[in-house]
Design a protein that fits this description.
Elements: H1 2-27, H2 35-57, H3 64-88
Length: 89
């Protein structure tokens, strides 16, 4: 169970910082983090960090795919983590 929670924490930290990095690169007009990568991290368990990053950095908040997709992935993440904890915890 500890491994599951450590993974969840780590992937959410990555999700949070990827949104911050993408925002910084957008402001500097540099090459951006691909949206597929942002969604992949969210789908792999980092949706909470991605959502907090969206709100904190005010980034991707006007894109419907992110404003609906990330919360949907967050719900899916919660279900999956709960099932994993129930099965292995």
């Amino acid at each position: 169970m500890v491994a599951i929670l450590l993974y969840w924490l780590a992937i959410n930290v990555v999700g949070f910082f990827l949104f911050g990095l993408d925002k910084l690169k957008a402001v500097r007009k540099e090459r951006r983090v691909p949206e597929k990568r942002l969604f992949l991290i969210a789908a792999l368990g980092g949706a909470a960090g991605a959502w907090i990053g969206m709100r904190s950095f005010r980034h991707k908040t006007k894109h419907a795919s992110f404003t609906f997709g990330v919360p949907a992935l967050l719900l899916l993440n919660i279900v999956c983590i709960s099932l994993l904890i129930k099965a292995f915890g």
